[in-house]
Structures are given as C-alpha cells and as structure tokens.
Automatic annotation (TrEMBL):
Protein name: Uncharacterized protein
Organism of this sequence: Mediterraneibacter butyricigenes
Lineage: superkingdom: Bacteria
Species classification: Bacteria, Bacillati, Bacillota, Clostridia, Lachnospirales
Length: 71
C-alpha cells in the first residue's frame, strides 16, 4: 500500500464541447500524478482516436524502416 492524495478539481470552459465538470486526480506524496478520472465521454473518445492514430504512425514508420533495411 502507498499513501495517495486525492484531489478534486473543476475542468472545462463551460461550453457545449467542453463542459465544466469535476475531475479526480490521485497523486503520490512525491507529487507524481498517478491517475486521473475525467467523466467527459468526449475526452475519452478523443484520446482513443489520438492513440489509434499515434500507433498507426508508429507501425507505418516501422514497416517503412524494415523495408528500407531489406533493400
């Protein structure tokens, strides 16, 4: 077990695409962010899309590099 600090804060601009909402963060005693919960479903969707594109680029670049090494 470790000691953590739970922080609740407000996030968002208060507009349709970025509503004000309460987030929860968990920090260790050395001030390292351990986890964050943001209830905005659009944020999660945006993160999944971003991560998918990032991984796709990594795979494509790796494949190109492998092909160049074989030539």
């Amino acid at each position: 077990m470790i000691k953590v600090i739970e922080v609740k804060a407000k996030r968002g601009l208060g507009i349709e695409k970025d509503p004000v909402r309460e987030i929860t963060q968990y920090w260790d005693i050395e001030e390292n962010l351990l986890a964050e919960r943001d209830p905005d479903p659009q944020l999660l969707s945006d993160q999944v899309i971003w991560e998918s594109k990032r991984l796709q680029n990594i795979i494509e670049n790796h494949s190109k590099n492998q092909k160049l090494q074989q030539d």
